[in-house]
Amino acid sequence: MDFGTDFTINVLWAALLGYAFGSIPFGLILAKLAGKGDIRQQGSGNIGATNVLRTGSKGLAAATLLLDLAKGLVPVLIAWNLFWQEVGWTALFAVIGHCFPVWLGFKGGKGVATNAGVAFGLAWPLGAVYAVVWLGMLAITRISSVAGMSAVVATALAAAYFQWWTMVKVLSLIAVLVIWLHRENIKRLAAGTEPKVGSKG
Q1: The model scores a pTM over 0.85
Q2: What is the mean pLDDT of the chain?
Q3: Which DSSP string corresponds to the chain?
């Protein structure tokens, strides 16, 4: 991933590939197809799996989680084959697409599941770190935001440990974005009012 001054057409294609996949609002689509209404008008208003779970359907939430993960994984795998030098742009824009989908007025999710797919696509050890930290923190705290933020930071640190410096760049940018999108969650955590997984709030 080159953040320098050299801009090639491949960078544009790589970014568009990531954004096209990332911007598909699976949570919204699945909830509507299942007769759950507009997920944006329920719970936290988020289109991700955690809010879909608040509809009471664990299966629907699991499907949303897997599809949101896939829309980070698939474009990155495609990018490795088409323009591997620009794969970081695909990874970054897959998460940006999920968080800011043009189809929903640039109001999407918070990027946690999609970033999991991105991590697996970039390198399986990074995906493994992401999964272990995410699931571990979720089991310990039962707070989705804590698990997600912990996972994105841990994955960027893991890339640094392996000295995969180009991946450190993109994963650090994604971590900053994800944490910024969780700013209201951070306020609730500080106030002790952040809901736990399975709650209706």
Answers
A1: yes
A2: 89
A3: ---SS---HHHHHHHHHHHHHHT--HHHHHHHHTT---GGGSTT---SHHHHHTTT-HHHHHHHHHHHHHHHHHHHHHHHHH-GGGHHHHHHHHHHHHHS-GGGTT----SHHHHHHHHHHH-HHHHHHHHHHHHHHHHHH--HHHHHHHHHHHHHHHHHHTT-HHHHHHHHHHHHHHHHHTHHHHHHHHHT-PPPTT---
